[in-house]
Amino acid sequence: MSDQYAVVGNPISHSKSPLIHRMFAQQTGQDLDYQTLEAPLDGFEQAILTFFAQQADQPAGLNITVPFKQQAWEMAAQLSGRAQRAGAVNTLYRDESGQICGDTTDGVGLVRDLLENQGATLKDARVLILGAGGAVRGVLEPILEQSPALLVIANRTASKAEQLAQDFAEFGELRGCGFAEVEGQFDLIINGTSASLQGELPPLPAGVLKPGGWCYDMMYGAEPTPFMVWGEQQEAGRVIDGLGMLVEQAAESFRIWRGVRPQSAAVIDAVRAQLG
Ligand code: ATR
What we know:
Layout lengths: L2 E7 L7 H12 L3 E7 L5 H11 L5 E5 L4 H7 L2 E2 L1 H6 L4 E4 L5 E4 L2 H12 L8 E5 L3 H11 L5 E5 L3 H10 L6 E4 L8 E6 L17 E9 L8 H8 L4 E3 L2 H16 L6 H11 L1
Parallel strand pairs: 1-2, 1-3, 4-6, 7-8, 7-10, 8-9, 10-11, 11-12
Antiparallel strand pairs: 3-5, 5-6
Helix pairs in contact: 1-9, 5-6, 5-9
């Protein structure tokens, strides 16, 4: 039987991960099967243990998505440093002794998409990130590792942004505030809020985007998000959605499991074609 992999969430039927990982497997010549696995809301841990028990004698791994990333973090016997600090796990695998280990690849995915696919430079850039929930916590460390001149976290609830800035202070020049308190202009604004799901736009002060600065939304879909529409109105140098981040985080999970990092460009194109 092929080695077994899956993405676990609830709901999960619309996940693009099977498409992405099957293309990676084909491209790299790996014999593996990748499915969706819907865990009951009150039965996540059991679903994980059952999955790995069923694959006792062969390599296996899981991606974890909404709403289980924190539960995966809690149940993993070992965590990578970046997952420990992110407070969330999107990749589970087993080490040689059979222990379930957790990692997070979302931040690496975002940074690789920005640097390698889009040609952005984060070093010495002024970066503004919107939101202070799990999605933003998960990407702060890899962004700060690129040595931006300043990273400002702005959030509707200012205290959450301030807390995040404190938690990651050791990694770089970081500040947290409410949207109205954002000062100065930024080379790059990243939307990590879930405001788009309600068709809303985080209330940014006018003039926060430098002329020619870039806008990046961690979400993606068939239509541009309200934040992407705002970016176009600001005449951003570039407006980018989160599809490349989705594929790059998957590529990093694949590397963790299989030891080979797939090429992402053709896969990004294929997933985009499916969005309609
Ligand atoms: P996720 O895992 O996607 O980060 P989350 O932890 O619930 O989800 O965080 C959602 C983020 O989107 C928060 O930063 C939230 O702001 P609050 O902390 O003030 O709740 C932000 N958010 C959600 N809806 C928003 C809206 N309509 N406008 C601005 N920010 C919004």
